[in-house]
Amino acid sequence: MKKISLIWRIIIAIVLAVALGMAFPAMHEGFGKGFGRVFVTFNDIFSEYLNFIVPLIIIGFIAPSISKLGQGSGKLLGVATAVAYVSTILAGIFAFIVASNLLPTIIHPSAKDSIGEGARAALDVLLEVEIPPIMNIMTALLMAFVLGIGMAATNSNVMSSMFDELKKIVEKVINVTIIPLLPFHIFGIFYHMTYQGEVANVLQVFAIVFVLIIVLHWIMLTIQYSTAGAMSKRSPFGLIKTMLPAYFTAIGTQSSAASIPVTLQQARQTGASDRITGFTIPLFSTIHLSGSTITLVTCSIGVLLMNGLPVTLGMYLPFIFTLGVAMIAAPGVPGGAVVAAAGLLSQMLGFDETMVALMIALYMAQDSFGTATNVTGDGALAIIVDELSKRQRA
Fold first, then answer.
1. Each residue of 142-170: pLDDT tens digit?
2. Exposed site from 69, 248, 253, 344, fewest CB < 10 Å?
3. pTM for the complete prediction?
4. Which of 229, 263, 260 has the alpha carbon at shortest distance from 245?
């Protein structure tokens, strides 16, 4: 029997949560409330566990990735890394400008008292369990940088091997405990919102944000390929057409790493040199995340507006710049970027556990398209690096 993909499990969880959230209280208020309290308790424990894991994810993935970046080929590595980071940051700023101006005219705060007479009080947890993280997010980021740069500078094979093993352990934890439980976590959140009478507003926001993100993805790809086309004197739309097989491969696999063979093949067909594409495409698959950044920024603005919270450039610029680093070498599993970003959402944007769960659901609905945008944009960046390399040699 073919395994159901994560996105379909999440969709099924949302549909069931909405259906049961409406049916149970209508049939038996006491049973509906008791059923909901079980899942609210699960959500509370799962959120504590997720907060505990996030610093380990940051250290386990970023530290070894930085150590390997430092072992590359000098100037070319620096140029490629800078191009990827700038592209990711510009994508985040672009998404903020558009979403922060457009979404407030469409999305309005959810008000429990105005939803209708059926609105109910929040459900209480049955049991409170605290799982304090070993460190906060900024400490984990700084430690990852210090250790990664230190391993690169000292060529520490022992430490590098140890952190490679840590990365494998953390990835296993994600695949075995977090990803399988995500649909249940999202089920509980949507059941609770349906029980309270808030779900209609949330689903409306989902639809609006989904459409906006797809549009922003393609505008960003057009900007990237227009830049690459101008530098290489090639048609940007011809270049995009050449890279479409990589786009659709990434939609199917939901993994930048799994798409590397097709991305590499198509990038070479754009006219970029084999030397550059062979070096940059695997590198960009872990450090270039323009599509994922657009998704995270736009989704987070939607969630903030829905909860009546402020959205300002002052709070988002540090978030975007930090996000560009925190997602480096995000786990090669669907939704890895949003799991890695969960701590930043809480610490820098003030998200509570319900808002983080909504972010996960919103992000997962877009994950394959964000990955496809990352992968397709890698071809444009390979051309840009190739042209910069030629000019350095000239």
1. 888 788 888 878 888 888 889 889 888 98
2. 248
3. 0.76
4. 263
